[in-house]
Amino acid sequence: xxxxxxxxxxxIKWDQWGLPIGNGRIGAVFYGSTAKEQIQFNESTLWTGTDxxxxxxxxxxxxxxxxxxxxxxxxxxxxxxELCFPHEKFSNYHRELDISRAVGTVxxxxxxxxxxxxxxxxxxxxxxxxxxSADRPGSYTGSVRLTDKHFAKFTTxxxxxxxxxxxxxxxxxxxxxxxxxxxxEQQIASGKEKFVGNDMNYESQMRxxxxxxxxxxxxxxxxxxxxxxxxxxxxxxxxxxxxxxxxNWRGEDPHSQVTQQLEAASKRPYPELLSRHIADYQSLFxxxxxxLGRSPQEKRDLPTDKRLALYKQLVESKKDPNDPELEAxxxxxxxxxxxxxxxxxxxxxxxNLQGIWNPxxxxxxWSSDFHMDINLEMNYWLxxxxxxxxxxxxxxxxxxxxxxxxxxxxxxxxxxxxxxxSRGLNxxxxxxxxxxxxxxxxxxxxxxxxxxxxxxxxxxxEVAFPIIQKAVLFWQENLIEKNGVLLTTHIQSPEQGEFxxxxxxxxxxxxxxxxxxxEMADILGTDRAERDKIAALRDKLGKPKVGSWGQLMEWDEExxxxxxxxxxxxxLVGVYPGRQINPLTTPALAKAAAVSLAERQRGPSEGxxxxxxxxxxxxxxxxxxxxxxxxxxxxxxxxxxxxxLASAVGKENDxxxxxxxxxxxxxxxxxxxxSQLGELNLLPALPSDWSTGSVKGICGRNGFTVDMTWSQGxxxxxxxxxNLGLPCKVLYGDKVLNLAIGKGESIQLDGxxxxxxxxxSH
Length: 762
What we know:
Beta-galactosidase, Chain A, domain 5, Glycosyltransferase, 9-stranded antiparallel beta sheet, 17 helices, 30% helix
């Protein structure tokens, strides 16, 4: 699968035209300019800010309590590699990002020479690689330069440039949010944004390797190249961040590790670096294959930007866009971005609001943080069903490191045991925004989901259960009894209404949390009395209610603002990603959820991309493929830019948020298969416009992987692979089948769920 082909870009905005590459830790965007190219890069741990909490607690009465408002910081841009060659006049230009290989390419002709550039960020070698080649020897004369955003000191030795710096507490941020300066105290005091320096040490090293020709040092950070045949540019980068609260988040100076990574990569020839990168990447990407139908050839021939523009025009005119391959591309692009921004090891945190791409702003939009009232959770909805389970591990490792900070803040701000969350966290766990508590219960679902797919009992015992246990401890102390039921206290339904008791958002999340705890406690055989106590609390929780006009009520008492368009659908978390509400188990509540959802999207299309992705997921859980595809298409129309990155609030504000990219992939998975109730429900919300297609490698809970084909809207074949050997129940429409599939074995079914062949190894 290939994306982002096209002509030279006229207006450069990174989140509209920059093409992203990444290895989970080092992310970069390239633009493809022939004469003066910038490859801007990030490293996932380069953050300002401290672990002193900066959230605001909104009490029932009195003045809001705020702790250390100026300590939050932001994810930082690192620097850039700048290429400068006299190639202003060119022809036959082509730029692409091949997401089947995770390799970017630019080709063009200049002065009769055919030039080619290749870009990728390697996970096995932990370096970014840029390779310049041409079909005529000696064609590269120009310069390669390493730049930095935070006053690093440059040294050059042979073909290696090193930039060493520190996020100094004395630095200040100018009002453009892009520029760091050493300011006077008066300038610091009057600045609109604070640069929250934390003395983090960082380093980048760039090595330039030429074949044919020569090179020599130029100005600071620059290597000049003269008549080279080919040029390989390697970049390694790191910080002294350590995900350890007890060590104040600091480990070894990055110099030794960065040097070792660069030296090891330099010993490999370019073809080997490329083949190692592709093999590693495809070991994840190729697990999941998707065919939603074939697009007309005239659309397939268009560059992606023009093809997307035509798609938007047709959807805006309420016409059939008739481009299922473009719709499948968006789903696979989410998987590409996940593999590129969230890989285990190397102390990498999870994908933040922008994945690992923030190339310009030293104070990013929303700090490019870990947002907890849907965004971080949505980032990871896709990983289990789309066969990228290990990409969730950075989320768990990171949160395990910051949980002590959350626990400390919960005690300081609320005087309660256990832990809760504010709506945003920085790299080291400090909160920002409203300390609204229940988002911690939502985050716990990601831990639970990982176990339900993998059944990794050791991980459950050592990582997930202790964290969930402390979240449960907090909620035992934050329930009140009213009219014979237990209500969560003082919760806002984001971002709608006031803080109230019994908000549906809180009720449903705590019900899920308690249910997850009970399942885990039974698996691990923990204290029975404590387990039964939580079971009694869960059963006494106030349940979802249906309101006067058939809606699922958002608050314990009905309010007028339940009518009207709004981007948040927080009171429907019991439908998705939860399991408390489902057409098969609670049909009346599912019907009420559909009424609420239809009302929420009654007005004009709202800006947030994640909202449309969330709606598509909910419609899929309600078995309404038509509406799910409608929202999926509106997302593509309103929020997807020419580089296929999702804009958070539409074109006017031009703010990238990656959650919509990830949520779109999750929505497609939910349309094709669901397993939250314990069975494999095949094609539960297949849209009629995807009447013929296939999916290979979609995952269900309890260790199942499924390959399906369908034609004219009906299932034709399903191959079910069992990784764990657990009992398997399969649903398709009104058909039900119970199967016994051995560990490592498979069964093939026809469109009527009749076995065609069974118990063959895979």
